[in-house]
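Bench notes, afternoon.
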Amino acid sequence: MAQDNKKKTRKAKDDPPQKRGNPGDFRGSRLTFLRSKLPEFCKHSDARTTREFWKKLWAEYWALYPWEVPITQEPPDDLAGLGKADSVLNPEELASKNDIKDKAQTKIKRWFSYARHSGKGGGNPFGKWLAQLRRVDERAPKRLALHQVYMQDEEKNDEINRLLKERHPELVGRQNSIKERTAIARELLEAEDPEIREEYRLRGEEEYQEALEEFKSGEGADAAAEEDAEARQEARGRLAVTIQPLLDSIRAITGSQVLLIAGTVVEGRFDVRTLHGHAREEDGLEKGLDFTAWDTTGFKGVMDQWMRYLIAAAAEPNATGPTKPVDRGSNEEPPPPAADDAAEAAPSDVVVVDKEPQAPANDGTPQAPANDETPAPNDGAGGPTNGEEEGGGGAGPMEVEEVVAPELDRMAGVGSPLKRTVRAMTPDSRAARVFELQHMNEFYRNRENNKAMAMEKLEQLGIRGEVQGLMAELRAANKRGAGDEEVGGGSRVTKRAKTKAFPNDDDDYGSDDDDDDEEDRAATPKPAEPPRPRPRRIVRGVVEPTADAPAADANAPVPDVNATPVPDADAIAPVTDASANASADPVTADASPAVVVVPKWAPHSRKLLETGEGGEAWNKVVEEWWKREEKAAFKGPKTGAAAKDRPGEIKGWIARARTGGPQPPIKDLFTFSGTWWNWWMKLNPSWRAKAYDGRRLLKEGEGEWEVLQSQTGPNGLLNALICLRWWRDVLGENAGQREQKEWAEAVEEVNWVLNEISRREGSAGGPKEGGGSASASAGA
């Protein structure tokens, strides 16, 4: 019976009204006045000029609503005697006036702030739509009061509990004793020394700053949830329900067509969703035809490009292989969404693609020549090929090119010609080039884009090789001209190169014709000296034949490689003071002996460099170094490569007579590699420019190589190469891709330098034996 008496009944029409909600502080004409000022407030708030707005508003408001009239009442029609000035008020009335105005102005500011952010008052037309999102953000941490920090101390907390039990035994075990606990904490804190209170204040401030930093960086529980794969998958599933109201609001209020494409690559599969802004019929607009149904073929091309972007953005090495485009269906209109309650509440078109990542067909732009890394370009565009219909025709899938170096697609400011140029490089050169581009600023990237574009144009015209050759000749001629003014050769070569490069621009150089004869007369070359006969030498115990001496007899005894070389009888010259003071090293700087013995350090060093795996590039470096040592007769200058700033492990290597021995202990490979790069950059000529990260050298430019050309012998480039060998041995087979790439960049750098030196020597006559450079001998 008692339960039946408590049964709820429907409220009758004649029942007294229930309690009303909070009507707010402003109503009537005051509310109308404030709403009329809301758009102006929003404008000033966005421009951050609210000080001017408040100054103008207070003058208008207090003129209409005197301070003597309560804020909840309407002002009388006759305002005479109201709004008294401060000069006619006594101190008590003046204090009351200031208090009333301060409280009223605070409420007005709060009303404007609330109305602006909530969309009420007509300030934001998206207000009712934004309310459907129901987004709850994590609040920023607050700074704790000093007594709260004090209560967090375990020892102090025990003391507070003891005093609470003594003073309020009835509150022991109850949860609502925070008031009494706070009072005890304040009392104990006040009794502490100032130094102790300052320590607690600093502790609380430190904890607050850490919490604030964590909040700003997003490393909280929400950020951890976003990184969770299951949480992200659930969030993608709720995308339509969350975002659809906002898209519908844009369509209904602005009349704009809206299409949102969201996609990602999850575990090697695409997850793509499309949402459309369909205005509902009750909003006064009919549902329009969406873009996917209007042009299915065009939409397929859009989605192909979008998925290509997803592959690049995912940066998955296993997702960049040769793949096929996604089949997006036939030309028929897609079936309508499921007629359930959720679809009626928020119309949307959600497309989930669960296929392997596939790159779209080629966009038709010019491609680099096909090589081992980049397949031949496809003639297909983003849509179906000629004569094929999308979907139901049963046409086979289109083949597409492999996405090489996907990081180029994520790099801002890199044009298509430069991308094609980089992708056509070998893997080692491509990796180094991508690294340089990543550390370039906008100016240098634009320069590289222009160079790549110009090279493509020249390639299309079929004159790229010729122009590059002429440019190289111009640069070389200009450099030679700077040092050959006394013979006039530089100006004459420069003139010829310019005339050859620009045969139709004779008038531009007409002013130089008068001086040409004088230059030719002044530039009469001296007769060249006959070439000196090259002495025979023994390489690894075998006498090498030369043009002036026949090959040695196979049955002839092989000289001892450790013995002092004995010249031919006819080649023995009288001993002079100069020859008596010569070096006692078996391989001397004198070129008079006819045979030269390979010293012990050379074969031992080569064997050590060739030990273990190093790759093709490393083998080329070792081979090129050995050729240079042979040409120089394994001799070097009296002073080798600079010992300053070189890795300290070289000292022990020299102490062991460069004959191998145990691997030197390298504790920190990062420090060792950095020291090697710093030393290597100082060994190189000063005209070589540094890369944009400051830790590499650019492989470009022209100049003399004398500083490295003479670095042969035991104290030459061998020390730099042996450091690279140690570097590789420490890496081992289990090194990461990044560590192996750094070592490969160092090897590529040395290989480039050796090739450039050989190229210059080939054009200048080769190096002199004994470590002298060709350019130095020519200059002498």
